[in-house]
Amino acid sequence: MRIEAKTALAISSLLLFASNVQAQSILIYDHSISLKSGESSEVAQVYHIGKACQSLLKGSPEVEVMQGPPGVTAVIREEMVVPRGMGCANPVPGGKLIISASDVDDYSRTCMVVRIKMKTSEGDRQRTRDINISLFPKQ
């Protein structure tokens, strides 16, 4: 198999570009959760790291509910997290996304849209995630 010079140049340029890209991530454990009235669930780790697994955050991540059912809230609990999904072994500053339901009267199913906002050394970043939620009244 022979690789043409143009193809080899394109591949090497792509690899060089990819090696300079900063890794960033919000690791979602589950895209679908179920909650009873009064329950909470940890659904994601939030962090922003560089290619050497160093944190690029300059402040605590924040979450904003863009769409969701009444009585359901989202918060980010600030803590050290291990971005294993990015191949890192040491904890970095970040947080965990917690979804909570209060006062659920009837069963419902909906999609919650959350926006994660982060201040980083690369500037302000926003990521949006959809989470399917099934809500159940307490019995």
Polypeptide structure, described:
The protein is mostly beta strands. It has one domain: Immunoglobulin-like. Helices cover 12% and strands 50% of the residues. The chain has 1 helix and 8 strands, in the order αββββββββ. The protein has one helix at 5-20; strands spanning 25-28, 32-36, 40-47, 62-67, 72-81, 92-101, 108-120, 123-136. A 4-stranded antiparallel sheet has the order 1-3-6-5, with no helix packed on it. The protein starts with a helix and ends with a strand. The model is unreliable at 5-21 (pLDDT under 50).
Q: Kindly report how far apart the N and C termini lie.
A: 67 Å
Instruction: Using the coordinates above, name the CATH class.
Output: Mainly Beta
The CATH topology is Immunoglobulin-like
Helix/strand structural class:
mainly beta
Largest sheet: 4 strands, antiparallel
Mean pLDDT, all residues: 83
Oligomer: single chain
Low-confidence sequence ranges: 5-21
In total, the number of domains comes to: 1
Sketch the topology as an H/E string, one letter per element.
Answer: HEEEEEEEE
Q: Count of helical segments?
A: 1
Within CATH, the superfamily carries the name Cadherins
CATH architecture: Sandwich
Q: What is the strand content?
A: over 45%
Q: What percent of the residues sit in helical stretches (DSSP H or I)?
A: 10-25%
